[in-house]
């Protein structure tokens, strides 16, 4: 159980690090998040349908193996 939790966080950290290396993609994802969700509330599961850029980043991370 702990290894699974650790691997998930490692994957999230890896995705964020890769996005930092690509400022254009990071800016696009941040803009999408600010526009669709806003800064005043946390992301909800119902928001995920509309976050196409962020979903693409996650799918690419999973496709390429991540951490």
UniProtKB/TrEMBL annotation:
> Which SUPFAM superfamilies does the UniProt record give?
Cytochrome P450
| Cofactor entry | heme
Q: What class of enzyme is it?
A: oxidoreductase
Which residue stretches, if any, does this entry annotate as coiled coil? none
Name the Gene3D superfamilies for this protein: Cytochrome P450
Q: Does the keyword section mention Ribosomal protein?
A: no
What's one Pfam family here?
A: p450
The EC designation for this entry is: 1.14.14.38
Alphabetical UniProt keywords: Heme, Iron, Metal-binding, Monooxygenase, Oxidoreductase
The GO molecular function terms of this record are:
heme binding; iron ion binding; valine N-monooxygenase (oxime forming) activity
Q: Does the keyword Repressor apply?
A: no
**UniProt record similarity statement:** Belongs to the cytochrome P450 family.
**PANTHER family registered for this protein in UniProt:** CYTOCHROME P450 98A9, OS09G0441700 PROTEIN
Entry protein name: Valine N-monooxygenase
Q: Which organism is it from?
A: Helianthus annuus
């Amino acid at each position: 159980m702990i290894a699974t939790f650790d691997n998930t966080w490692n994957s999230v950290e890896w995705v964020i690090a890769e996005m930092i290396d690509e400022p254009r993609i990071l800016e696009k994802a941040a803009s999408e998040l600010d526009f669709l969700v806003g800064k005043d509330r946390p992301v909800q599961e119902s928001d995920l349908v509309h976050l196409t850029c962020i979903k693409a980043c996650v799918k690419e991370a999973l496709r390429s193996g991540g951490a």
